[in-house]
Specification:
The complex is a heterotrimer of chains A (about 375), B (about 375) and C (about 425). Chain A has about 375 residues and is an alpha+beta fold. Chain A has eight helices and 19 strands. Chain A has two domains: about 230 residues, Rossmann fold (3-Layer(aba) Sandwich), CATH 3.40.50.300; about 120 residues, no CATH class. Chain B has 14 helices and ten strands. The termini of chain B are far apart. In chain C, helix 5 runs antiparallel to helix 6, helix 10 packs parallel to helix 14 and helix 18 runs antiparallel to helix 19. Chain C starts with 17 loop residues before the first helix and ends in a 10-residue tail after the last helix. The chains are: A alpha+beta (about 375), B alpha/beta (about 375), C mainly alpha (about 425). Chains A and C meet through strand 6 of A and helix 15 and helix 16 of C.
């Protein structure tokens, strides 16, 4: 079935499945469509199927079932070199026996472009990544960051409409990585390229993308803009995988509109927002972000449930305080507060009562 | 006092130890031939003296290895089995001990001194003859064309019309040049005089040229028997003992053409540079192993003729096959109607010269 | 005070020049390193460098004539070898004196063997004359000229004395001349008679066949190495065992097996005849010639090509080819422009290995090479073990070694030796 957005979709996965051994599916029934110019990140743990999807899109793996469409036409039977997709590889894959300029010139040569055109384009691409003076060097003579820029320039030099990036920043140190994250997004937006970006680093995904597809177990668990992903995870996997998260398990006691009451396994009752539950009696996992937990009863609704917590540990982190609490049998319940002048400093061993707004505690699948 | 006793007993033990572990290394050709020596010589000798004999199958490279050992000043061989031509060379190079046949070898049972019993088979001062073998032709009886007599004389080797098929010849000039001249009209007694000349050598090569396209050149003694067994060739030269085993032991359809067989000798040398004890032991072994009975015994295991005149009447039956060995000896009168004796002196001089020409001719 | 002056050396704290101080502190480390490799160094020196050096020295060493016949050689200096006249009594007397000592030491036959390489017949002349000369008395039996010629005609020929004089030099170029089908004569270096010229041909053939074998190994080995590097681990391991299998059988067995395969009544011919591809009367001749040598040696040397290729290909990540394809290259372009250039170091290493091994082979050519498929090494082996002309063997070996070094140098100039990889 082609879904309604297909008219405007530039890249589309339609019920795509992939199996290597004929016994297990690595990618299970994948549907995805992205408009032109979008920066989409595939995020997930290793083995979740994200790289396989990228490789299918690039043409290095064939879909076992389903269609992959580019600009409305199926590319299943088009070999990779005819797809016209730019790609940046994890270890850059710069050809070591060619100079930087020859590397960049390669895609233009195989397209039978004239020499002067090639030179102009190579120069432009090098300038674009601020590597104009490095054309004569060999890849081995460049630093990791420089190689990364060249790989980017090479993927862009033949002006593809779609660029795929397979964990391109994995080998760089933190500072350089952050800088490159910015650079890549800037380039992608300036040039108006559609980008599919694969990473297992959630920060990278959140900071760079227009939308993020969270992969697990061969499926897209949630496809949403970064803020929505963090604040409104649709299931417990996404809640766990994106950002820090506290989990408690229990049974739905009652539901009323946008709020519900959950009876925890330890017997205590808490407020939550029903997301994946609708009937009392259903088992659920609730998810609360550490920064949304409240010590101060005054800030909660008068009839809000509270729960006892014992302070296990206090960690001073400068801008924030971090507490590890024991809550309803969970010894790793984390709470963060901003280091404000009125911030409470709890001492280990102390027993307090905590609570939260029902909207901040999402009752998800068990 | 105590220390001295200790030292003395230690010395005594060392001496005793070396006496118990007395051993000698004898070098030979390996295979059935070494086996015949083991049965006929080594085992009885070990039994008699208690000396352990170690076999080394290095005779094919004996000359080069002995020279290298001698240069290194560490000769590890005690007795070496070589062909007569190699013995002459080793003697020339000073690598083999000169032997006085009458004092250092056993006399015949009737008292004939060894020098007479061996006669002119003692081709070098260093050489102790052991067997007479011959290089002759074997052919596939089933590949003889219909209506044609089986080949019985040497020139059928060069007669491709009557006897079509491949031949195997040794990849060296020796024997081949003689046969070629014999079949090109040169009288037997003139062969070496002719071969001494440039023209004679060319004549021999020209004769070989007539069959060159049908020749497979062999370099290991096992080649021709194998080629015959595989039906790869019609006829080929090899050592008569090898043909015996193809015919009698493997029952292949092969027969021997004895005409113009070339007699050659194989025997022992003792390397120079041995310690006096080792040399004495080697001489003792030689005295034992080349007496009349021992040489006759070897013929029970392999069809080579004993080098002593006095051994011939003692040759009996094959140890396993039980067949009479005398008719299979190259020296048997029926086989030796027309024979040729390898001219050692000639080949010692001309070997390198003619070999170079022969190889150049082969490569053409 | 600064440690440096404007134009003086840098000084260490105690005032000694810094360089000297550094050298002293490093010397200890160097000594320790040297001690660690000392056993290996001694082993290599004794078992490899020294024997090779002494073998090479043999190619020019020729002391035997002068050592055995010192007085004769001195006396021959006065004789004009071009005169066509026999030397005078003085030379003959000197010769008798030398020979009596030589016969005593049993050295005369050895000299005869040496000179027989140059002049056929010398060997028996010295051997036969030895006994008679040994009986002579150096004083009472004079004069000797007639007596000696009586003992053997050869002593009455000018050529004999020319040969002795020509080869009396302690260091000779004679073996090297022989090695290139020439000879050292009284009139200087001359070509060997045409009927004896064989070695240059064999050198040429050895190089040519080794190149063909190397080429065949590249063509056959490349796809296999590629498969090994790209198949899944389990399949690749299985294939690797098949590649290494030949290593587990002896060279002689493998070569003999090829004989069974290739001969006219052999497996290949039988199969072809059975399939009707070849007429029974026209069975292929694929052994005892160059084809046989090429087939058998290619098979034997193939692993030496595959292994270095494989270890290089293993280090080429598949992402290079993928990158090339994503950039628009066809399979062929991706292979030829991206994969192949990176695998060249493996080809280079394999080729050097195979070529150098091939150039020195002699067992296989001896068994399956017939007359046209033999190598120069077969002649070296002949001169080592059969003719005992070790000087010539050493000269041939030296030339072969030089040829390999020159080729290695050329390879370095053309391809660059740092482009050769035996492994990761």
């Amino acid at each position: 079935m082609v879904n309604p957005t297909s008219e405007s979709a530039f890249v589309q996965f339609d019920r795509v499945q992939k199996s290597y051994d004929g016994e297990t599916l690595v990618v299970k029934d994948l549907n995805l469509s992205m408009p032109k110019g979008e920066f989409l990140t595939m995020l997930g743990p290793s083995g979740s199927g994200k790289t396989t999807c990228l490789m299918m899109l690039a043409g290095f793996e064939t879909a076992t079932h389903g269609d992959i469409l580019l600009n409305g036409t199926s590319i299943n039977n088009i070999p990779p070199h005819k797809r016209g997709i730019g790609m940046v590889f994890q270890n850059y894959a710069l050809f070591p026996h060619m100079t930087v300029a020859e590397n960049l010139s390669f895609p233009l040569e195989v397209r039978k472009m004239g020499k002067s055109d090639r030179e102009a384009k190579v120069k432009r691409a090098l300038d674009m990544v601020q590597m104009g003076d490095f054309g004569g060097r060999r890849p081995a003579q460049l630093s990791g960051g420089q190689q990364q820029r060249i790989a980017l320039a090479r993927a862009l030099v033949f002006e593809p409409e779609l660029v795929l990036m397979d964990e391109p920043l994995g080998a760089l140190d933190k500072q350089l990585r952050e800088h490159m994250q910015f650079e890549i997004t800037r380039l992608a937006h300036d040039l108006g390229i559609t980008t599919v970006y694969v990473t297992h680093d959630q920060t990278e995904a959140l900071t760079m993308s227009d939308r993020v597809a969270v992969f697990d177990d061969g499926r897209i668990q949630q496809l949403a803009p970064p803020d929505q992903l963090y604040e409104e995870p649709e299931n417990s996997f996404v809640a766990q995988f994106i950002g820090e998260n506290n989990t408690l398990t229990g049974v739905v006691k009652s539901v009323s509109g946008d709020a519900c009451v959950i009876t925890l396994d330890s017997g205590e009752e808490i407020d939550a927002k029903p997301v994946n539950v609708s009937q009392p009696g259903e088992r659920t996992k609730v998810s609360i972000r550490p920064e949304r937990v409240e010590f101060n009863k005054d800030r909660l609704n008068p009839n809000a449930h509270t729960i006892k917590a014992q302070v296990k540990e206090f960690i001073y982190m400068g801008d924030i305080f971090r507490f590890r609490l024991s809550v309803a049998g969970n010894d790793d319940f984390i709470v963060k507060t901003r280091n404000a002048p009125d911030a409470v400093k709890l001492t280990p061993g102390e027993t307090i009562e905590i609570g939260w707004l029902a909207a901040d505690c999402r009752a998800l699948d068990a | 006092m105590k220390l001295t006793t200790l030292l003395m007993s230690a010395t005594a033990m060392t001496v005793a130890g070396s006496a118990i572990a007395e051993e000698m290394t004898i070098v030979s050709w390996g295979g059935a031939y070494s086996n015949s020596q083991l049965k006929a010589y080594h085992e009885p000798y070990s039994e008699k003296t208690g000396v352990t004999i170690i076999n080394d199958d290095s005779s094919a490279e004996a000359v080069a290895k002995l020279r290298a050992m001698n240069e290194a000043g560490n000769v590890t061989w005690d007795v070496v089995d070589v062909v007569a031509a190699d013995a002459i060379r080793l003697c020339d190079e000073g690598l083999a001990l000169e032997i006085d046949a009458d004092t250092q070898l056993a006399a015949a049972p009737d008292g004939t001194p060894a020098s007479e019993d061996f006669g002119d088979l003692i081709v070098s001062d260093c050489f102790i003859p052991q067997i007479v073998y011959s290089t002759t032709f074997g052919y596939r009886t089933d590949m003889v064309p219909d209506g044609v007599e089986p080949p019985s004389e040497i020139c059928s080797v060069f007669d491709l019309e009557t006897y079509p098929g491949k031949r195997a010849l040794e990849k060296r000039p020796i024997n081949n040049m003689e046969w070629a001249l014999l079949c090109d009209g040169v009288a037997k007694e003139d062969v070496y005089d002719v071969l001494e000349t440039e023209e004679g050598q060319d004549q021999a090569l020209a004769k070989l040229d007539t069959i060159k396209g049908d020749v497979i050149w062999w370099s290991a003694g096992a080649d021709t028997p194998q080629l015959l067994a595989d039906g790869e060739i019609f006829m080929g030269s090899t050592y008569n003992g090898r043909l015996f085993s193809v015919i009698e032991e493997q029952n292949q359809p092969v027969a021997i053409m004895w005409d113009a067989q070339v007699f050659d000798l194989d025997g022992w040398i003792i390397p120079t540079g041995l310690s006096p004890e080792r040399e004495a032991r080697a001489l003792d072994y030689i005295m034992f192993a080349t007496d009349t009975q021992r040489l006759a015994d070897q013929a029970k295991y392999i069809s080579y003729g004993p080098a002593r005149l006095s051994s011939a009447p003692l040759v009996g039956t094959h140890a396993e096959l039980g067949i009479e060995m005398a008719p299979h000896m190259p020296t048997d009168p029926a086989n030796a109607a027309n024979t040729f004796l390898y001219n050692y002196e000639f080949w010692a001089d001309y070997r390198d010269d003619i070999d170079a020409k022969f190889q150049a001719w082969l490569a053409q | 005070m600064a440690d440096t002056t404007a134009n003086g050396p840098v000084l260490a704290a105690d005032g000694t020049p810094l360089k000297q101080s550094l050298a002293r502190s490093l010397r200890r480390q160097k000594m320790r390193a040297l001690m660690l490799i000392a056993p290996l160094l001694v082993f290599v020196l004794l078992s490899f460098i020294f024997p090779i050096a002494s073998m090479l020295f043999r190619s020019v060493e020729n002391g035997i004539v002068q050592d055995t016949l010192p007085e004769t050689v001195a006396a021959l200096q006065q004789w004009d070898e071009q005169s066509g006249e026999l030397p005078d009594e003085e030379v003959y007397a000197a010769f008798i004196r030398d020979m009596i000592i030589a016969v005593d030491n049993k050295e005369h036959t050895r000299l005869g063997s040496r000179l027989n390489y140059e002049e056929t017949g010398m060997s028996s002349m010295f051997r036969r004359s030895g006994r008679a000369i040994g009986r002579l008395d150096p004083v009472e039996d004079a004069p000797f000229k007639e007596a000696l010629i009586d003992i053997h005609d050869g002593w009455g020929e000018v050529g004999t004395w020319q040969t002795i004089k020509t080869h009396a030099v302690p260091l000779t170029n004679g073996y090297f001349l022989n090695a290139v089908d020439m000879q050292r004569t009284v009139d200087g270096a001359q070509a060997q008679p045409e009927s004896k010229q064989i070695l240059i041909t064999l050198f040429g053939r050895t190089l040519q066949m080794s190149l063909i074998i190397t080429g065949a190994c590249i063509l056959l080995g490349y796809p296999i190495a590629w498969l090994l590097a790209n198949l899944r681990m389990r399949t690749a391991n299985l294939l690797m065992i098949l590649v290494l299998l030949p290593f587990w059988t002896s060279l002689l067995v493998r070569t003999s097996a090829w004989k069974v395969m290739l001969q006219q009544q052999g497996v290949i011919n039988d199969t072809l005849v059975w399939l009707g591809l070849v007429d029974d009367a026209a069975r292929l001749v694929i052994i005892n010639n160059q084809i046989g040598t090429i087939i058998a040696m290619t098979h034997i040397l193939l692993p030496f090509m595959i292994l270095p290729m494989y270890s290089v290909m293993q280090t080429i990540p598949p992402s290079y080819t993928r990158a090339a394809k994503s950039l628009g290259a066809t399979n062929w372009t991706a292979f030829w422009r991206v994969y192949f250039p990176q695998s060249v170091p493996g080809i280079g290493a394999g080729s050097i290995l195979v070529f150098i091994l091939a150039i020195g082979y002699y067992i296989t050519p001896e068994i399956v090479g017939g007359t046209k498929g033999v190598f120069i090494s077969n002649r070296i082996a002949y001169h080592i073990s059969s003719s005992l002309n070790w000087g010539l063997a050493a000269a041939l070996g030296t030339i072969l070694l030089a040829a390999v070094l020159i080729l290695y140098w050329a390879y370095d100039r053309i391809v660059g030796i740092d482009n050769v990889k035996l492994g990761g």
